């Protein structure tokens, strides 16, 4: 099923140290996405990659569904609605694809392909929201969006068609309540990335890098193997900017008409880019149990009584699938070595090898994707596998966390920040002024991710002006 004949299986993966090449090759060899589609910035999901995506987005849905409603809005946005919010237009106008004709007839009103859906959704919010009883309102959709990106495009990382844009939009009676929702969003995203065993940074983007139209933006970044950061989620406090533009008001309990406060927060398939990049290794993908399309691969070692080996393998397969484990029995003609290689490439968390001698002893050989190898009794196999899956999750996280921690260094000067951002993330004392911020970015030649959230620091001298403050900023080269 996942063993398609689309790709040459003999090829060897480049070293992970050559991150960019490794990443591109791996996406093809493991059959995640095919980048050969003849439109720049648009990729095809292989069925196997799509299965990973479904499992990953099932977690997002599970985390949002208790208090958000899933919905779907149209892809096309009329020019007059799109052009209403000035800051938003300024942020996106160079990135919008336009539909200008229907067949051979020019359209009266041009239609934008959504780069994100504020301007599609908020005119409808105006119609939906009447009174305080309609608030808070929390919706989300998972859709494709289009951005005419001019920076170098990369599969899953910088796309012109983002196929899996999860955007949540919430509406509140007060600014404070909306601020609380931003915290909720970050908490949900944090839980999401923990379940993917991925460490991350949370920071408040500097004012010049916030979402167009937002009061502020809080972002989540993952540190990639090459030390550059990937923004894998953002939550924006929109204040009443869009409420003013789209006249979204509600009747308060005292009868007064008031402007709403809003938030929006988004995640794209960049989360899968991070998952692949952080956990993958020289042998291919390494997928956390929860998102692996195949969780256990059984490889029969066909020596001696082959029928017996196959029969026992099938029995184990049945036992595992009745325990809701996603299991595949590999009965292809490949030699065992080729099968091991293939399942490792696909990131399968656990491989079971079943041979005649094991059967005699009532055991199987269990090999985890992190190379831990054990002999386990067939009796109680399901429990043993669940335990190994948990340990593997912890091991993946610990390995990722080691890398993450090694990648972040505190520095005191611009020179040290410059050195550190060549290899990772620098934590730099910053007084918080816009002037010092710009000067930092210019002289360090890296981006400011902004102020770390949920941590405090002792006073230190701003790396630019020397003023003492408790302020800090992360700096990094960004994808
Ligand atoms: N409306 C808001 C919140 S839904 C919004 O559009 N925010 S955003 O512009 O920050 O995008 C949300 C997330 O999508 C980003 O944090 C980033 O992780 C991801 N993203 C943005 N542009 C791209 C792109 N070209 N390709 C892949 N992912 C992208
Ligand atoms: Zn300063």
Defining traits:
479 residues, BirA Bifunctional Protein, domain 2, Translation Initiation Factor IF3, 3 domains, eleven-stranded mixed β-sheet, globular, binds 5'-O-(N-(L-cysteinyl)-sulfamoyl)adenosine, binds zinc ion
List the helices and strands and how they pair.
Blueprint: H1 19-29, E1 33-34, E2 44-45, H2 47-64, E3 69-70, E4 76-78, H3 79-82, H4 86-92, E5 98-102, E6 105-113, H5 118-128, E7 137-146, E8 161-172, H6 175-195, E9 201-204, E10 216-223, E11 229-239, H7 241-246, E12 249-251, E13 257-259, E14 261-267, H8 270-279, E15 296-300, H9 306-322, E16 327-329, H10 336-345, E17 350-354, H11 356-361, E18 363-368, E19 373-377, H12 381-407, E20 408-410, H13 414-423, E21 425-429, H14 434-444, E22 447-452, E23 460-461, E24 468-469, E25 472-476
Parallel strand pairs: 3-7, 15-16, 15-17, 20-21
Antiparallel strand pairs: 1-2, 4-6, 5-6, 7-8, 8-14, 9-10, 9-22, 10-11, 11-14, 12-13, 17-18, 18-19, 21-25, 22-25, 23-24
Helix pairs in contact: 2-6
Bound molecules: 5'-O-(N-(L-cysteinyl)-sulfamoyl)adenosine (5CA) and zinc ion (ZN).
């Amino acid at each position: 099923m996942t063993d398609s004949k689309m790709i040459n299986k003999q090829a060897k993966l480049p070293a992970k140290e050559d991150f960019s090449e490794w990443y591109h090759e791996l996406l093809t060899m493991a059959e995640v996405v095919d980048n050969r589609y003849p439109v720049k910035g648009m990729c095809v999901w292989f069925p196997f990659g799509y299965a990973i995506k479904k499992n990953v987005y099932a977690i997002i849905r599970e985390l949002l569904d208790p208090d958000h409603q899933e919905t779907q809005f149209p892809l096309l946005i009329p020019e007059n609605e799109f052009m209403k919010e000035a800051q938003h237009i300024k942020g996106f106008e160079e990135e919008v694809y336009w539909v200008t004709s229907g067949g051979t007839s020019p359209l009266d009103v041009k239609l934008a392909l959504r780069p994100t859906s504020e301007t599609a959704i908020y005119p409808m919010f105006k119609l939906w929201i009447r009174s305080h009883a309609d608030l808070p309102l929390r919706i989300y959709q998972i859709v494709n969006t289009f951005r005419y990106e001019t920076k170098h495009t990369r599969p899953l990382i910088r796309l012109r068609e983002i196929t899996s844009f999860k955007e949540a939009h919430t509406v509140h009676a007060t600014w404070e309540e909306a601020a609380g929702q931003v915290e909720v969003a970050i908490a949900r995203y944090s839980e999401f990335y923990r379940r993917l065993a991925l460490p991350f940074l949370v920071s408040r983007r500097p004012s010049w890098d916030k979402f167009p139209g937002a009061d502020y933006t809080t972002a989540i970044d993952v540190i990639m193997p090459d030390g550059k950061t990937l923004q894998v989620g953002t939550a924006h406090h929109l204040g009443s900017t869009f409420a003013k533009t789209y006249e979204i008001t509600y009747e308060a309990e005292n009868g007064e008409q008031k402007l709403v406060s809003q938030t929006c927060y988004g995640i794209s398939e960049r989360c899968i880019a991070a998952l692949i990049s952080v956990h993958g290794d020289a042998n291919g993908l390494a997928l956390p149990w929860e998102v692996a399309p195949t969780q256990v691969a059984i490889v029969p070692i066909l020596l001696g009584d082959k029928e017996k080996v196959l029969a026992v393998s099938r029995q184990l397969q049945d036992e595992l699938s009745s325990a809701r484990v996603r299991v595949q029995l590999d009965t292809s003609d490949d030699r065992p070595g080729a099968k091991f290689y293939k399942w490792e490439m696909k990131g399968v968390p656990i491989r079971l090898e079943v041979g005649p001698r094991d059967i005699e002893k009532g055991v199987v050989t269990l090999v985890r994707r992190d190379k831990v190898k054990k002999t386990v009794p067939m009796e109680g196999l399901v429990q043993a596998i669940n335990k190994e899956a948990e340990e593997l999750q912890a091991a993946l996280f610990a390995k990722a966390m080691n890398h993450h921690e090694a990648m972040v260094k505190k520095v005191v000067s611009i020179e040290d920040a410059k050195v550190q951002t060549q290899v990772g993330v620098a934590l730099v004392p910053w007084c918080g002024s816009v002037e010092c911020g710009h000067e930092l970015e210019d002289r360090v030649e890296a981006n400011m991710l902004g102020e770390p959230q949920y941590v405090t620091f002792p006073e230190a001298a701003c790396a630019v002006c020397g003023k003492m403050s408790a302020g800090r900023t992360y700096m990094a080269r960004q994808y």
